[in-house]
Amino acid sequence: MQGGLERATGEKMVLNFGPQHPATHGTLRIVLELDGESVLKATPHAGYLHTGFEKLGEHLDYNQYIVVTDRMNYLSPLSNNFGYVLAVEQLLGIEVTKRCQYIRILMAELSRLADHLLWLGTAALDLGAFSVFLYSFREREKLYSIFEKTTGARLTTSYTRVGGVFRDLYDGCEEDVRQFVTNFPKALKETHTLLTKNRIWMDRTKGVGAISADDAISYGLTGPCLRATGVAHDIRKAEPYSSYDEVTFDVPVGTNGDAYDRYLVRMEEMIQSCGIVTQVLDNMPDGSVNLEDNKITMPDKSDAYGHIEGLIHHFKIVMDGHGVQPPIGEHYCATESPNGELGFYIVSDGSGTAYRIRIRPPSFLHFQALPHMLEGGMVSDTVAVLGSLNVIAGELDR
Amino acid sequence: MSEENQVEEQPKPLILQKLEANHADALLAHDETRGTVVVVVRKEQAYAVLEYLKTDPELAYTFLVDVTAVDNSQMESELMQFDYARFMVVYQLYSYQGQCRARVKVPVHESDLNIPSVTSLWQGANWLERETYDMFGINFEGHPDLRRILMPDDFEGHPLRKDYPLRGRGERERFNFDKQNV
Amino acid sequence: MGLDFVGQGAGETDGNIITTTIDKVVNWGRKNSLWPMPFGTACCAIEMMATLASKFDLSRFGSEAIRFSPRQSDLLIVSGRISIKMMPVLKRIYDQMPDPKWVISMGACASCGGVFDTYTLIQGVDQFIPVDVYIPGCPPRPEDLIDGVLQVQQKIASGASPKGVEAVYE
Asked: Do B65 and A360 contact (CB within 8 A), yes or no?
């Protein structure tokens, strides 16, 4: 036992960590009660980025809301787009074309790479490894250019539509993506050599912020944070959606549930995602990306401009109260977003606007478990644990 | 209230069989939509049913996915059911063992917004219930720390209720920096 | 910069003396050594990170000394949406910055609320703190942010007071 002066006198110090702190990457706030350098009590506060997404869902129609989902987990907007339209489609009881399903998987896995890369860069930056930040952004910029060519935007992609996607892949997309996934494992190896056996990195993450599998389930952790505790649960495997049953991949698991294991799980997930992307490209079916259903998807532009039927269909889709109208009912749809289980619970009253949209954010539950991981540790571990959880404020507060 | 006239060709899901055997008086209605079993449960027995679903070794719904609520005040068809209960508290459950989902819904009347908290069953319920309290004003009895979570402490009203306007009641313009405790 | 070379005749000082005003020298220094305080909250913060990272490299423009302490910085970059719970924090951070200070409002949400016209979101931070440069976009590209920083630099070079100072004297 180390006995500092504070410890001897039992004097507590309260440290406000955030809401503006370089390691919070946004607007998280943790109130730490310290005794010397050890954390007695940690109280996370949320809500500094509350935007009213769920309320907004009751006022926008189903296709308009896709734009809002971009801005939720802004590290991987394509995964949010995907999860949301999947929920609407399942509520409608429709299934999109095979090619569309494959394109969505492709984009979701690329955005998983982008998400994990940004997490890697910033988590390492917080612990002082600046080079990793530059290396991972170098790779992320390559993904940005693929996203931009496909969707028209680097970050706020709004790519999916109910019943399809905004547009087909661009010419040369396959070569770009193949080139990326071929070179990416080599680039990731650079990071492995920088971090994985790095003495400082190991000292600062091994055994830090550990959580047991039972506690993780009780706290509702999902995604890499749950898998790091040894629970091999992945929604892509357990409840395969959108043709995920047609690709093979491994679900990496950890053993200790600490920050180091979360790091290793995410690193391996990136390699697995590359494998999925290659399989998807190898088996990419031909055909249309949009459903041929004029009540759900927009007609072709040439059709809308050239034929009166096309124009009417176009008009009806965008008109209030004539567009996508799921039947009365409710549905909860979960997808495996890069951070964990991203669920959309939609209640429909039969109109063109959802009656209630509830977003089940993985980060909300991860952030809640933070005191469990911090208390009893050192104050400097806070940054390591917070970094390893990858809490995204936009998704946390919605 | 329960939908007894449902004709089941395929075997009843295990969860329904077991609930009907053990908690028949708690069940108000049940349904199976898109692979998920939905049960509507009386508020008084809600805790007991959730505890049963979690601890029963055959069901083992050990993962509380989500807790939220729906304000049915503008949805006539829903409001008419269950004695004009304005709110419906919704629990999403998942069983790692059976790899299946279930949804438990509990009607809550506006006159009595209390409902037992499930924080003693799942630690993760803490913030989810706080958020539901913040957004809908539903009072979770026995919650260790029922405070607002997303809105500022001095905020008035519950934003996700249907009578709360999207653009607020002027909170974002009427802004007093002195009042705020930063 | 308004520099004049003097000492045209013979001697040691030949061509080695320049005359200018103190203001101009100070502004020249300020312009090329802006220390930004990134107040990143949401999506724009990710593009801000991209601006600072390898490809776009903001340090080419003399603004790489990112300071997360408001007391050490003179350029506040508000990037992302600001909720009513966050606004007092932002105001406090702005107040803590030493004068002269400039503010960039990056992206649609910080400038006007963007697509989020909801109960909790401040519809433009300029209601509460003075903003010098607005950058449109949702989110703006890194090039846009670089342009915004250059606009602040031009403003400094021209000798104009920051909006915050004008507001005090008005």
From this structure: yes
| Mean pLDDT score across all residues of chain A | 88
Q: Check if the beta carbon of residue A346 is closer than 8 Å to that of residue A88.
A: yes
Q: Is B181 helix (H, G, I), strand (E, B) or coil?
A: coil
Report ipTM for this prediction. 0.88
pTM value is 0.88
Q: Which of C87, C92, C118 sits opposite B167 (nearest CB)?
A: C118
Among partner residues C49, C68, C118, which is closest to A55 by beta-carbon distance? C118
Nearest chain B residue (CA) to A49 = B150
Closest CA to C68 of A380, A19, A131, A45: A19
Among chain C residues, CA nearest to B164: C119
Residue of A nearest to B153 (CA): A47
- Chain-centroid distance, C-alpha A29: 21
CA of B31 vs chain C CAs: smallest distance (Å) = 35
- Which CATH number covers residue C67? 3.40.50.12280
Number of domains in chain A: 1
Q: Which residue range(s) make up the domain with C8?
A: 1-30
Instruction: Looking at the complex, report in whole angstroms how far the Cα of residue B180 sits from the nearest Cα belonging to chain C.
Output: 7
| Minimal C-alpha gap between A182 and chain B (Å) | 35
> Could you say which of C40, C80, C139 has the minimum Cβ distance to residue A155?
C139
Contact B127 A365 (CB under 8 A): yes
Beta bridge partners of C4: C19
Segments of chain C with pLDDT less than 70? 1-15, 166-170
Single-letter amino acid code for the residue at C116: F
* A90, containing H or E segment: helix A77-92
**Residue A128: Cβ within 10 Å count:** 11
Name the residue of chain C whose CA is nearest to B172's CA.
Answer: C122
Contact B63/A at CB under 8 A: yes
Q: What is the mean pLDDT of residues A115-132?
A: 88
Tally of domains in chain C:
2
Residues C50, C8 share a domain: no
Q: Residue A380's CB: how many other CB atoms inside 10 A?
A: 12
Q: Domains, chain B, ranges and CATH? A: 13-118 (3.30.460.80)
Range of the domain at A215: 53-397
Residues C122 and C93 in one domain: yes
> Which range, A7-11, A292-296, A322-326, B103-107, is most confident?
B103-107
Q: Are C122 and C83 in contact (CB under 8 A)?
A: yes
Phi, psi of A10 (to 5 degrees): 70, 25
Residues in chain C: 170
Residue A14 backbone dihedrals phi, psi, to 5 degrees: -105, 125
pLDDT digits (tens, 9 = 90+) for A289-313: 888 887 888 888 888 898 888 888 8
Instruction: Check residues B177 and A325 and name the one with the higher pLDDT.
Output: A325
Which of A50, A65, A357 to mutate: most B Cβ within 10 Å? A50
Quick check: is A369 in a domain? yes
Terminal-to-terminal C-alpha distance of chain A: 43
Per-residue pLDDT for B127 more than 80?
yes
Q: Quick one: residue C59, left, alpha or beta (phi over 0 = left, psi -120 to 50 = alpha)?
A: alpha
CB within 8 Å: C42 and A71:
yes
